[in-house]
Design brief:
Rossmann fold, 167 residues, alpha/beta
Amino acid sequence: MTGVDPERKAGAESQGSTPVLRAAAPLRVVLDTNVLVSLYVFADSRFATLRARIENGEWQAVTNDACFREFRRVLGYPLFALTEVQQADALAAYAASAMHHRDPAPTVAAALPRCKDRDDQKFLELARDSKAGWLVTADKALLRLARGEKLRGLFRILTPEAALTAK
């Protein structure tokens, strides 16, 4: 298979004498609410590449009812002073690019550490249950959990800045 990227060889199949490449599955990522606000409300240029990776299919953003409801609720905070149209636009843009995970939690699920902020536990559970590779957050309580070994083999917790350079 001359000229084929070695990392993509596993996705190559032969169809007659012509190799056919299958695209690698996108990396599943869970984005917490503060990252979503940066990407879909303020269009933070530092993280434009994150949104582009979702929109071009390199990454698959994953959400569920609880996480999506939190995003909707936060968009209504007076601090942001968003009109109903702006809120609806942000929700629609995210919903159009995110996969909604509806599977129930597995009956035998890997144990997760308890987040100091109980409201953030849902992001850990979604990352585990959806088999996400990464949970991208700027939340200090979640980032503290990244330091230990309790999540090894499940998913990584990364800041948006670290996600831009991680492999």
